[in-house]
Design brief:
A hairpin with a 5-residue loop joins β1 and β2. The protein has a single domain, classed as Multidrug-efflux Transporter Regulator, Chain: A, Domain 2. The protein contains 5 helices and 2 strands.
Length: about 110
């Protein structure tokens, strides 16, 4: 069952948890970590990556640019560098619209 962000009050997340939240493979997160400076997970004593909410938001921005908008990796890097606040604002709006859509879909289901 996917994680619901609002239900999670954790400070740190494993790569598996992040992969489930974003709905991608852990290998893709490791790849993006090597390509994008904005993803900087710390490592625990065992050497496992531990991600903060800020890391997750950065990964969501990259996902949005690369997977949803079709940017190349270089294009996504440039967008993050030059228009970071615009990307964040658009991503927030998209998130809110998805929440509204989910709410309306659930409401419709209950009414049928």
């Amino acid at each position: 069952m996917p994680y619901k962000e609002k239900e999670i009050e954790k400070k740190y997340f494993s790569i598996g948890e992040v992969a489930e939240i974003i709905n991608v493979a852990p290998s893709l997160i490791r790849f993006w970590e090597s390509e994008f400076d904005v993803i900087k997970p710390k490592k625990n004593k065992k050497g496992n990556r531990i991600f903060t909410r800020k890391d997750i938001e950065s990964i969501k921005m990259i996902y949005h640019l690369v997977k949803e908008k079709g940017y190349t990796l270089q294009g996504a890097k440039d967008a993050l560098k030059n228009n970071n606040q615009d990307v964040v604002s658009r991503l927030e709006v998209i998130g809110k619209l998805k929440d509204i859509r989910s709410f309306l879909t659930e409401l419709k289901r209950k009414l049928d």
